[in-house]
Amino acid sequence: MAYQPFSNYNISDPYGISPEQRLSRSLAGTTRTAKRAKRGYETDRFDLGKQYKKQVPQLLSNYAQRGFETSGVKNLGMADAAANYSRVMAERGAMLDDALTNIALERMGAYGDYFGSRFQDSFDANTQRASTAAKIREALS
Predict the structure, then answer these.
(1) What residues contact 74, with CB distance under 8 A and at least 6 apart?
(2) Nearest to 88 by CA among 30, 46, 43, 48
(3) Which residues contact 121 (CB under 8 A, 6 or more apart)?
(4) How high does pLDDT run on average in the chain?
(5) pTM to 2 decimals?
(6) Phi and psi torsions of 97, nearest 5°
(7) Exposed/middle/buried for 22, CB within 10 Å: 0-12, 13-18, 19+?
(8) Which residue has the higher pLDDT, 6 or 88?
(9) CA–CA separation, 87 vs 12, rounded Å?
(10) What element of type H or E holds 113?
C-alpha cells in the first residue's frame, strides 16, 4: 500500500477539497438549518399567540350574547380553546426538538467523517513508515 497523503482530497469539488473544508461546509449548513428551524418555531409561536389573543374576546362576547357568561359552558369553551393552543404549541415544540436532534446527529456524522479521514491519514503514514523501516532492516541484514 503506497502512502497517498492527498487521498482524502477531492479536486472536483472546489468548496470541499480538503476534509477541513468539507467539515466547515457541513457545519455551516447545519447551523443555517438550525436557525431556520428556530425562526419557524418562533414565527408559529407568535402567530398562534396572536390568534389565541384574538379568539378569547370573541369567545367571551359570543357567550355573553347567548347569556352563558356565568355558566360552565363558557368555562368549558375557554378551556377547550386554551387546550387547543397548548396542544398546537406542544406539537410545534416537539417538531423543533426533532429537527434540532437530527441536526445534532448530522453534525456528529460530519465530525466523524472528518476525524475518520484524519485517522486514516495518520494510519496510512504510519503504515508507510513501517513498510519503509522493514525494507531498510531487510536491506541491512
Answers:
(1) 59, 60, 63, 68
(2) 48
(3) 5, 7, 8
(4) 84
(5) 0.65
(6) -60, -45
(7) buried
(8) 88
(9) 49
(10) helix 72-140
